[in-house]
Amino acid sequence: MKVVILAGGKGTRISEESKMRPKPMVTIGEKPILWHIMNWYSKFGFYEFIVCCGYKGHMIKEYFINYSIYQANMSFNLAAEEVNCHKQIEPWKVTLVNTGLNTLTAGRILKVRAYLGEEPFMLTYGDGVADVDLFKLIEFHKQHKKIVTLSMTRPEGRFGALKLDEKTFEIQGFKEKARMDQAWVNMGFMVMEPKVFDYLDDGTSMLETIPFENLVKDKELAAYPHDGFWSPMDNIHDRDYLEKLWNEGRAPWR
């Protein structure tokens, strides 16, 4: 099964980094978050990736053109003009597709259709990591027989809640905002049947708006519940959090 990764957005909420490079190329532990996402899929035996490029997409292309140089120990025999790599490189097949600078997510998926054939495929966002069990996700998708299955989770609570007397506005206590208090959110890590292309609204909308709304109306959208780790990289604080987990050896997606 092929994996499509949406990697074309401008990443304006993490502008400290995205001014210099596309968001999927922002690094965690000296490797782009795009690499981390691909590495997780490859742990389950999924090696074929289609990356939807857009903003500063040439930097993603340059990264893969020079991938062996970045990843391997190398020996150079200058007299014989020989170069040898001393590291096993990931067995990935990567197709990079220029899907436009301002194309919306539904349009980006439409632009890679020719590379997908008529088989089911997986799709995720190029700015979030998780420890999703992909085998269980695919089995869930097959059992529910919907056109699209997305993964959902309850994010970790980041803010404490106040217990308040609403008449006097007197604070009566504090409560940590537990994960179970949160609403379910779409975290990506989707499985899609080829019929999804009938719902993409000619590529003129975000995937999460008209296409998903119509799938809901037709009862063709399922959600796989994930209770493990997930974190987007929406801003510089998220990046620092993920970097800390990685450097301390506590990254669940490692």
Key features of this structure:
alpha/beta; two-stranded antiparallel ribbon; 254 residues; 26% helix; seven-stranded mixed β-sheet
How does this structure look, described?
The protein is of the alpha/beta class and 254 residues long. It has 8 helices and 15 strands. The strands form 5 sheets. Strands 7-4-1-8-13-10-14 form a 7-stranded mixed β-sheet, with helices on both faces. A hairpin with a 4-residue loop joins strand 5 and strand 6. The two termini are 22 Å apart. The model has no long low-confidence stretch (mean pLDDT 92).
- The portion of residues forming beta strands comes to 25-35%
Alpha-beta classification: alpha/beta
Our measurement of the CA-to-CA distance between the termini, rounded to an integer number of angstroms, reads: 22 Å
Determine the number of helices (DSSP H or I, runs of at least 4 residues). Answer: 8
Task: Note the run of SSEs as H and E.
Answer: EHEEHEHHEEEHEEHEEEEHEEH
Unreliable residue runs: none
